[in-house]
Structure formats: structure tokens, C-alpha cells
Amino acid sequence: MKSKIIKLADRMKDKEDLKLEALFHSAAIDDAGFSDRIVRRIRWQIRVRRYSLPVAMLIGGLIAAKPAIDLLVVASSLITVIPEDLRTLPLQSLPQMSTLFTGIAIASVAAMCVRLLEQ
Question: What does the alpha-carbon distance between residue 109 and residue 71 come to, in Å, rounded to a whole number?
Fold first, then answer.
């Protein structure tokens, strides 16, 4: 189904438009399947690009799984090495929220300044 705009454009053709249309109208050239091969090759390349990153991430994740598990085991063993008095710190010795927010704000401003200097 054509839209009304296209129908209106077809109605508005004059003699010159019809002559130009007839001049540029030609039958499809037989290329012995060349166009189909090119389209298949382009689609194959698109498919390869689409799936190469997820497959690489999966392979990298599988390779990194054993070292990550070993790291977690070592980190859990380090918790037992921490002295008992450090594990039971009173809340008064922790920094206040205002200090944390100030530090975060300073770090954010520093990151923005670095980005501005790079540009």
C-alpha cells in the first residue's frame, strides 16, 4: 500500500518527469550472482563483528576464572591475619559522613579538571 504522499507525487509528474523516468529506467543487469556474493560477504562480516566481542569476553572470563578464585581464597585468608582489635573498631574512629562527602567532591572536581585539561 502506497502512502498518500507518494500517490500525490505520482500524479504530479509532467511530461518531462515521465521522459526522465523512462530514460533512467533499465532492466537489471545479469551479474552471474556477483551482487549476491557481495551481500553474503558483507552480512558475514557484520555477523563476525557482532559476535567476536562477546565470544572474546567469554573466553577471557573462562581463562580468568581460576586466578580470580585463587585471589578470593587468598583474600579470605588475609582476613584471619588482621588483628582482633582492628576488626572491632568503634564507630567513633571511622570518618564522619561530611568528611567522606568532601573527599568525594574533591575527587570529582579533580577528575573534571583532568578531563578539561585533556581537551
Answer: 33
Cα–Cα distances in Å, from 107 out to 14, 103, 112, 115?
69, 6, 9, 12
Answer whether residue 85 shows pLDDT above 80.
Answer: no
For the question of whether the overall pTM of this predicted structure is more than 0.90, the answer is: no
C-alpha 54, offset from chain centre: 11
Spatial neighbors of 2 by CB under 8 A, at least 6 apart, are: 10
- Quick one: residue 32, left, alpha or beta (phi over 0 = left, psi -120 to 50 = alpha)? left
Q: 577528575: which residue's cell?
A: 111
CA of 92: how far to CAs of 62, 86, 89, in Å? 44, 13, 8
Residue 112: CB atoms within 10 A of its CB come to: 10
114, three cell numbers: 583532568
